[in-house]
Write a structure and sequence with these properties.
mainly alpha; 4 helices; about 0% strand
């Protein structure tokens, strides 16, 4: 018995397959553990992106405070700069990693090849 009718439509006896729903923000936040935050430095590009963001955010906030004298305005500039620089440096680092991981031909001397015998 065919699972499709002569017209090409699925028969009423076929099970309906529904895709699993994608996890939402709440589901992702519930799945976070404290160990995830302890291992941030092990994630490629995360450490450098965060350090660049913290440094430039601090610098932008300090400059804004020095010229305007408003703590609220300076903190807004610091947070915005931190987010922008961290995201940008993360993306640049990941792009560079992707470019450098393009498979390359490895030249191995004939005497050092591993042979299965």
């Amino acid at each position: 018995m065919s699972s499709t009718s002569p017209i090409g439509r699925a028969s009423p006896d076929d099970p309906v397959v529904t895709p699993a729903p994608e996890p939402g923000v709440i589901d992702v936040l519930k799945s976070l553990k404290t160990d995830d935050f302890k291992k941030v430095g092990e994630v490629p590009c995360a450490r450098s992106a965060l350090l660049y963001g913290i440094g430039t955010g601090f610098g932008a906030g300090a400059l804004r405070f020095a010229f305007r004298g408003s703590v609220l305005s300076a903190s807004n500039y610091a947070v915005a700069t931190f987010c922008a620089v961290s995201a940008l440096s993360w993306e640049v680092c990941r792009w560079q990693m992707q470019r450098s991981s393009i498979p390359k031909t490895v030249i191995v001397p004939p005497g050092s090849q591993h042979r299965d015998e």
